[in-house]
Amino acid sequence: MAPSEPLKALVSQMPEPDERGMYCHIVVKDLGGEGKKRQVETRPIDKDKIEKAIADIHKGGRENILGIIDMLVEPGQGDDIKARYALHCLAVYVCTLKQKEGNDSVRRDFSAVLASQLGANRPKGVRAYLAQELEVAGGPEAVPALGKLLLDQELCDWAARAIVSIGAGAAEQFRAVLPQAKGFARLTALQNLGVLRDAASAAVFRAALADADREIRLAAAWGLARIGDAASADALLKAANVGPGWERIQMTKACLMLAENLVAAGKNADAARVYTRLRDSRTDPTEKYVRDLAADAVAAMK
Q1: How far is the C-alpha of 185 from the C-alpha of 154, rounded, in Å?
Q2: For 193-220, what is each residue's pLDDT tens digit?
Q3: pTM for the whole thing?
Q4: In this structure, are residues 107 and 97 in contact, taking their beta carbons and an 8 Å threshold?
Q5: Longest dimension (CA), the chain
Q6: Can you list the domains of the chain with their CATH numbers?
Q7: What does the CA dihedral 278, 282, 285, 287 come to, rounded to 10 degrees?
Q8: 121, containing H or E segment
């Protein structure tokens, strides 16, 4: 859908960034004279003008939203800075209307239009930007479309951010893609299940502790620590008994986090078992801080 001329005129009213990429322009004038005096002026954007243009764009409904999306291009393939600015302002605008009017239909309609454009017919750079704006204004209506991007190595992170921001149905989307996810997409799904503290993924995390990829193993350990799964303590402690280096340090941190979360959940006996194992297994002089921390934690629980 080619953007209409009235829409182009409204989008053209968006501000131009200065040479720093900032929208609050700083103008430096050389006044000359002794000491080469300079005068610095700050020229803010015309907020009222932009807000009026955005309100007028919004009145055009779905046609105008699609028209702005059609102005977006792959990064480096053209100048779409004003269209991107306008779309972001629209995302904020519909959220503001929701807060003011207590009616979610405007935000939901905007979100649904963006979600409908996440298909392969749009360049990846454009779809990534739409996912960013869905992180601002998206809702449950956008989650299924975002979920389809979770297997894409280039788009999975942007989609994951939006899905986590939305919340509803997020864990289900990440769990659904794990059997097929590879590489960065798999890592992204596991990390975000940890962010969500998804207790239903405990078995998945335990299995991933044996993955050939170190980053996958660490993501699994972090996930188990986050959910505070007492049944996974032995598996996590075993995974932490690797040779000296980065993985041992991070796995040990995960064990400590697990113990802290077990204490917070009132599971002191399980936490004491983790601390005791760490105290007794960290015998290298460089790990004295772990021994001391674990010993103090056990003593505090008596």
Answers
A1: 8
A2: 999 999 999 999 999 999 999 999 999 9
A3: 0.88
A4: yes
A5: 77
A6: 198-302 (1.25.10)
A7: -50
A8: none
